[in-house]
Amino acid sequence: MRQQLVIVGAGPRGTGVLERLAANAPALYAGEGLDIHLVDPHPPGGGRIWRQEQSPLLWMNSHAEDVTMFTDDTVAMDGPVRPGPTLHEWAGLDGRVFPDRRLQGRYLRWVYERARAALPPNVTVHHHPRRALRISGPREGRQQVWLDGRPDPLPADLVILALGHLDAEPDGEQAALAAYAREHGLVHLPPDFTADSDLSALRPGEPVLVRGFGLAFVDLMVLLTEGRGGRYEGETYLPSGREPVLHVGSRRGVPYHSKIGYDLAGDRPPLPRFLGPAEVDALLARPGGPDFRRDVWPLVEKELGFAHYHRLFTAHPGRTAMAWRDFEEKYAAADGPDGLRALVAAAVPDPADRLDLAALDRPLDGVRYASHDAFQDGLRDYIEADLRRRHDPAHSPDLAVFLGLLSVYGQLVRLGDIGPWWHGFFSYLASGPPGPRLRQMLALSRAGLLRFVGAGMTVTAEDGVFRAASPTVPGFTVTARALVEARLPEPAVGRTRDNLLRALRADGAAETPDGLLRTDPRDGRILDTAGRPHPRRFALGPYTDVRTPGAFTRPRTGGPAFRQNDATARAVLFFLHSQAAPHAAPQAKELAR
């Protein structure tokens, strides 16, 4: 009898798992035959986020040369490396181009087709363009995956959930704002993937409050300006007359940092140095688990500082007052933030060359402007300075910190759910928009179509309107009849609109205090409330407690998602082998449990 594997989600994560199944199957799969069922209403490869039916104006926020779906020898995995082209090599693009998302979708479709073709002849892939509603079946027996619009379930020896970003029910604040909008005839757009939002209710010339200054805002900005017929001539925006006026603010009050616009010449910082596997092992061994601020963050700070100063001392020694060897020794021995600050002050004369993560994280803390117009000038100056710095190799320690962030993320994945702050901090520093997008922000600001509100932005619903304020400009408020929450929904299982995850939760799947699905960090098996891994159910993605920066990554950076995909694929193949061969090897039996 042919064995059955169901993968729910056929976007980049599901495609990555399929690629690892194809890479590992020749050595690990010895069954009579396997049917792989991909369940996703969107086409395999790109899935929902990278589908073809979206505006060509929407870009990736990565250079084409920094996007790959293929493993290399930097990925710490047991499976074989199967190299393949980056996006720019596949598409014949300049590697420094920021491609549109539809091109990335075509690349992902090609990766999917290549992976499918690489499977053994007795393995067949079937795509079901439907939504999965629930999974049933005993722990020790075959599972059933129920699909929308199909009366009979798909039988499954194993199920892998490879879902991406999820829609969510509103939290208390969002529900109250939505109710107020309905009562008073206002417009309230909740957190959503911007390409899926209906923006038609945002009327030309009218003010719109926007809460959120990250990548979702960039998409919103593009769709409401160029998407409505405006265009850029050099540094000037020529409006179509159909644009609303966007008033944007956030907790930080500034946009995410620009993508860095140069390559790293010379040696990379030797990472990990202060936060590697041994340190993570020690953190995991702490009774009750580590506290992020007390136990983890000091190691993160020291690791990022090491990356920064290694680059400064080795590439720009004229801006230091100490030999690198001496600094490195004292840096390693320094105990606590006061000792590190004293060492850095003595060794790095210019404060602009010192790494201050707190100042980077909250650049407007304590900053006050006398007027709203003065703040517009001030934030434009801030964005201009960020663009200059992020495109100037004289500040190459910034790129070293970026590499440090990637290294740290790869280590922190093993700790499971460490709270949402770290993911936001990482995205703000390492996953910001292309430089041209920030230049477009400046042009829109000068044209009067983009107005900055400030840090700590608050929104109230009163007197029949929405009102926004910020301590950055004391006493200033702006009112509007439309409010857009420019961010993705939080990936909490308890609030997701995904029927399958809701049913899993009701069936006893465990979740973290932040609402993420608990999984076994070794192979992605779903845990129950007693901490037992389910023998036949796996989950990978941003809704789990071992989420990664993304389903694809930069070449030669270790690719935590690739490592997870490989571990899950191997566990699946071992399990299927053990079921097909009663006298399977002891290793196969152990991994199949």
Automatic annotation (TrEMBL):
Residues 512-562 are annotated as: Disordered. Transmembrane segments: none annotated. Pfam families: NAD_binding_9. Residues 517-526 have a biased composition (Basic and acidic residues). Residues 6-165 form the FAD-dependent urate hydroxylase HpyO/Asp monooxygenase CreE-like FAD/NAD(P)-binding domain. PANTHER family: BLR0577 PROTEIN (PTHR40254:SF1). This is Adenylate cyclase. It comes from Streptomyces rubradiris. The lineage of its organism: Bacteria, Bacillati, Actinomycetota, Actinomycetes, Kitasatosporales.
